[in-house]
C-alpha cells in the first residue's frame, strides 16, 4: 500500500534527490489539491484523475442496528474519477489471466458434458 512516506521515497528515487528534499514536493502537491478542493475548485491531472467537490442532498436513511429511520444531512463530498490511462493500467489483462480464464471455461464445459452423459446413462 502506498502512503505519504512511500510516495516521498518514490519521488526521491525517481529524481535522484534525498528524501528530505522530496518530502516538501509531495506535501506541496497534496496541499495544492487540498486547497483547491477546499475553495470548491476541481483538480484535473490529465491521464491520471480528476478530483472535485460534489454536494450530497439531505436524505432519509436507516440505522442498520435499530432499523430506525434517521435524517442524514446534506454535505459536501470529494469525488475522484480516474483518468483513462490510469483505468487502463488497472484493468490490463495479462496473458496468464487469459489462459486461466480459458482453462476454467474448458473445465466448466467438460463438467457440463460429463453431467449430460451421466443423465443420459441414468435415463437408459
Report Rg. 26 Å
Helix fraction? 40-55%
Strand order of the largest sheet: 1-2-5
Q: What structural class do the secondary elements suggest?
A: alpha+beta
Q: What is the element string, with H for helices and E for strands?
A: HHEEEEEHH
Q: Which fold name fills CATH's third level, the topology of the largest domain?
A: HU Protein, Chain A
What CATH architecture label of the largest domain applies? Irregular
Number of domains as seen in the coordinates: 3
The count of DSSP E runs of length 2 or more, i.e. the number of strands, is: 5
Strand content: 15-25%
The number of helical elements comes to 4
* Fourth-level CATH superfamily of the largest domain: IHF-like DNA-binding proteins
Instruction: Give the overall shape.
Output: flat
Residue-averaged pLDDT, rounded?
Answer: 88
Spatial gap, N to C terminus: 59 Å
Largest sheet: 3 strands, antiparallel
Amino acid at each position: 500500500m502506498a502512503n505519504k512516506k512511500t510516495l516521498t521515497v518514490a519521488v526521491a528515487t525517481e529524481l535522484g534527490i534525498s528524501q528530505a528534499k522530496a518530502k516538501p514536493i509531495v506535501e506541496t502537491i497534496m496541499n495544492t489539491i487540498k486547497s483547491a478542493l477546499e475553495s470548491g475548485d476541481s483538480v484535473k491531472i490529465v491521464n491520471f484523475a480528476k478530483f472535485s467537490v460534489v454536494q450530497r442532498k439531505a436524505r432519509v436513511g436507516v440505522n442498520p442496528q435499530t432499523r430506525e429511520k434517521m435524517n442524514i444531512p446534506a454535505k459536501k463530498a470529494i469525488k475522484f474519477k480516474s483518468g483513462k490511462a490510469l483505468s487502463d493500467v488497472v484493468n490490463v489483462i495479462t496473458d496468464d489471466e487469459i489462459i486461466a480464464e480459458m482453462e476454467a471455461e474448458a473445465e466448466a464445459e467438460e463438467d457440463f458434458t460429463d453431467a449430460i452423459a451421466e443423465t443420459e446413462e441414468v435415463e437408459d
